[in-house]
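Retro notes
What went well: the complex prediction finally ran end to end.
Inputs used:
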Amino acid sequence: MAKDMTLMWGAGSPPCWRVMIALEEKNLQGYNSKQLSFEKGEHKSKDVTAINPRGQLPAFKHGNIVLNESYGICLYLEDQFKSQGTKLTPDNKAENALMLQRMFEGLTLFDALKQVLFYTRFVPENERHDSAQKRNAENLKSEVGRWESYLQGSGPYLAGKTFSLADVIVFPVIAFLFRFGLSEEHYPKLAAYHNTLKDRPSIKSTWPPNWVDTPGQPALKDL
Amino acid sequence: MAKDMTLMWGAGSPPCWRVMIALEEKNLQGYNSKQLSFEKGEHKSKDVTAINPRGQLPAFKHGNIVLNESYGICLYLEDQFKSQGTKLTPDNKAENALMLQRMFEGLTLFDALKQVLFYTRFVPENERHDSAQKRNAENLKSEVGRWESYLQGSGPYLAGKTFSLADVIVFPVIAFLFRFGLSEEHYPKLAAYHNTLKDRPSIKSTWPPNWVDTPGQPALKDL
C-alpha cells in the first residue's frame, strides 16, 4: 500500500497515465488518487499549484517529496522500489540502452502528436496556416512510421523481450494515436503492440475512464 | 580510457555538450571524438545516419550499443560506470527526486529557448507573426525567472548540495542563454551558477570551441 503517496491526474493525459501504470507495476496501489478535470481548469487550482507551480498534471507527492515531471516520477519509482513489483529496467546492457533510446524518442513522438491534435489549442486563430498543419501531419506520419519500423525490427516490447520503462512511458502515447483514429491496417505492428498491451493488468486498470464507453475520434484515420 | 566509445557532436549544441560533460565526469576520456559542422550539414551525412537515422547529433556508440538521445546517454553512462569518476546521482532521496525534477524541467527551458532563438529557422517566412515572437519571448522570460528562483531557494547546484546529472544536463542550456546575451544583472543567481560551473574541469575542457575566442550575441540582452 502506498498511503504516503498522492497523485493528481487528468483522464487521457499520457504524462498522467504513464505514472499510474508505473505505480501499478511497482505494486503501489492504494495511493491517494485525485482525478481532476482539464475541461474545468482544475489543473490550475490552488490544490495543484501548491504541489506543481506550473499548474500541470501530473502532480505527485511521496511523503514530503514533490516530483511532477512524469519521466522523473517513473525513474524515481523504479529506483526507490527496485525489488518490488515488476522490474522495469532490463539487466541486459543492450536492452537497457534501447529502453533509454526509446523512452526519450518518445518525447519526439508525443510532440509530433500534440502539434497535430492540439494545433488549434496552441495556435491563436490569426496565426494559423494550412501549410503548417500539412507539415505537422507529414511530420507525425513520418514519426509514426518510424515506430512501426522499430517493432518490425524487434519486439514484442519497445526495448525487446522485456516490458520496461519504455513501454510504461510510450504506450500511453501510442494508445492516444489509436484513440484518435490511427489505422490498424496502415500500422499493423503498432496495432498488435497496442492490442496486446491494452489487456495488461496495469494498463487495463488505469485505462482513461472517459474512454471506456465512448467512441474514439477519427482525426488521424488517414495518417 | 574509453577507446570503445564514439561520439559525433556539433559545437555549442546543448544535447552534445551534456554528453561530453558526462563522459569527462565519468573519467571516460580518450573516446573517439568526431566534431561535425551543422553549418555544412554534416549531421545529415551517411556517417551520422548510419548511427542515428534521425540525422541528429549527438550520435553515440559504445561497442555495438547505439544510443543517440542525450538524456539517455547521460543516464546510461552513470548507470554503467557507477563507481567510476564523479557519482552523478545523490544518495539522498530528496536530492535525487529534485535532480530528476530539474533534469526534466530542463526540457521545457530548452524548448522555450529554441522557440525564441531558432524561430526563423523553424518557421517559414510566410508563417511568421510578431505576436508569436512576442509570446515566445514572454514565455522564455517567465521560464528563466523560474530557474532564477530555484537557485534562490536552494543551491549551489540545481539539485542542492551535490553536482548531479541535473547540472550535467541543464548547465549547457544555461550557458547558451548567457552566450546569447542574458543579463547577469537581471538574473544574478543564474549568473553566479554559470560563473562557478564554467571553471569546473569537465565543463572547461568541453567548452564549445567556436565560443572560445568569439564574442557572444546580444539576442537575449533585454530578457
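What we learned: Chain A touches chain B at residues 53, 62, 64-73, 75-76, 79-80, 93-94, 96-97, 100-101, 103-105, 107, 124, 126-127, 129, 131-132, 146 (CB under 8 Å).
What to try next: split runs per interface for comparison.
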